[in-house]
Amino acid sequence: MSNPIFIVGGGLAGLTAARRLHRAGLDFRLIEARDRLGGRILSVDAARNPSADGFDLGPSWFWPGTQPGLGALVDELGLSVFAQNSEGDIVIHRMSREEPQRYRLAAHQVPQSMRLKGGTGALIAALAADLPAESIRLGMRVTHIAGDGQDIEVRFTAKDGSQETLQSSHVILAVPPRLLQSTVTFSPGLDPITAERWRATPTWMAPHAKVFALYDKPFWRDAGLSGTAQSMAGPLVEIHDATTASGQAALFGFLGVPAERRAVVGEQALVAASIQQLVRLFGPQAAAPSGTLFKDWAADPLTATPADQIGGGPPIAGGQAWVDGAWCDRLTLAGSETAEREPGYLAGAVDAAERAAAFLLSRRTAR
């Protein structure tokens, strides 16, 4: 019996690739360094526990009209969606010495941003439900990949420090290229051009942080506000209604404070300043949230590297091959950043995963 295909990374890309291979009858093993599946997808309740009706600390939106691959996967899994709330005025705060201003949008957002009922984590739960549990291992961090022989040796380390090496026929790396280059060694080594491309590819969302304020009801809607705000006064630069499909009310915002500064200021002060800002934008009812949530992705070592502390735009699609030299036919990159369409986004993760699975399935057909 041939060795299984190894998939490194249990986020949207890794799980999508695993599902395609499993349905085609190919044996696989999926390894995830975290103690949960989802990667940068994380939907939690007010106590920060993963939830089937949670707030999205990672990505929240998708656009099925312009992202057909992701839209098709959502339909295939039978998931329900709802529109991001856009009813009501938006608030713009240009300078701290000026008062925030309300503006009425001339038309609904086009294309309409959509969200998943239950949070984006519903996508992860549905994908995992289609996979054999014995083929998934959590809390296992890949440290070294060797390909000197006929098969590939994958070495990984558990949380208790124990190490294990397993054989694979092919490895799908469904994690950001920059994180790979920083945390995994290869034997033979990567060629310099490949290593530099991985190092230079920004990890989408890695420099960002989100703050959530939870409320008993979406009071801003009663005031004719959509919950959307933009601010150049900070600390939040972009704010949205994060109320769940079940009606759990919340506002969330992206912090405009650089990652290095966030580490110095600390979560408590950043959240307190964000609540004060919400009061200025939405009124005194914002002063007493029932709870708050904070997630700084730049402080997550399984997402960000030191190079990700400075913000930047999304990765750029196209260009040279992601794997070259001795590893050309033995490794396939499938992280969202490697997608040919919408790299870095949820749709990019699906695109990259489908491409990786199609490549391996075509090789089996060719044999």
As residue ranges, the low-confidence spans are none
Lateral arrangement of strands in the main beta sheet: 7-6-16-17-18-15-19
CATH architect. name of the largest domain: 3-Layer(bba) Sandwich
What do we call the CATH homologous superfamily of the largest domain? Answer: FAD/NAD(P)-binding domain
Domain Amine oxidase: 113-358
Pfam family, one: NAD_binding_8
GO molecular function, one term: oxidoreductase activity
InterPro entries: Amino_oxidase (IPR002937), FAD/NAD-bd_sf (IPR036188), Flavin_MAO (IPR050703)
Protein topology:
Layout: E1 5-8, H1 12-23, E2 28-32, E3 43-44, E4 55-56, H2 68-76, E5 81-83, E6 89-93, E7 101-103, E8 114-116, H3 121-129, E9 136-138, E10 140-146, E11 152-158, E12 163-168, E13 170-173, H4 177-183, E14 185-187, H5 192-200, E15 209-215, H6 219-222, E16 225-231, E17 236-241, E18 249-255, H7 259-265, H8 267-282, E19 291-296, E20 331-333, H9 346-366
Parallel strand pairs: 1-2, 1-13, 2-9, 6-16, 10-14, 13-20
Antiparallel strand pairs: 3-4, 5-8, 6-7, 10-11, 11-12, 15-18, 15-19, 16-17, 17-18
Helix pairs in contact: 1-3, 1-9, 2-9, 4-5
Question: Would you mind describing this structure in some detail?
Answer:
It comes from Rhizobium loti (Mesorhizobium loti). Residues 113-358 form the Amine oxidase domain. Belongs to the flavin monoamine oxidase family. One of its GO terms (molecular function) is oxidoreductase activity. There is one protein chain. By secondary structure, the chain is of the alpha/beta class. The protein has two domains: 1-80 and 117-206 and 297-366, 3-Layer(bba) Sandwich (FAD/NAD(P)-binding domain); 84-116 and 209-296, Polyamine Oxidase, Chain A, domain 2 (Alpha-Beta Complex), CATH 3.90.660.10. The chain is built from nine helices and 20 strands. The protein has helices spanning 12-23, 68-76, 121-129, 177-183, 192-200, 219-222, 259-265, 267-282, 346-366, and strands at 5-8, 28-32, 43-44, 55-56, 81-83, 89-93, 101-103, 114-116, 136-138, 140-146, 152-158, 163-168, 170-173, 185-187, 209-215, 225-231, 236-241, 249-255, 291-296, 331-333. Strands 7-6-16-17-18-15-19 form a seven-stranded mixed sheet. It has a five-stranded parallel sheet with strand order 9-2-1-13-20, covered by helices on one side. A four-stranded mixed sheet has the order 12-11-10-14. Strand 10 and strand 11 (152-158) form a beta hairpin. Helix 1 (12-23) packs parallel to helix 9. The chain is elongated and about 65 Å long. The two termini are 16 Å apart. The model has no long low-confidence stretch (mean pLDDT 94).
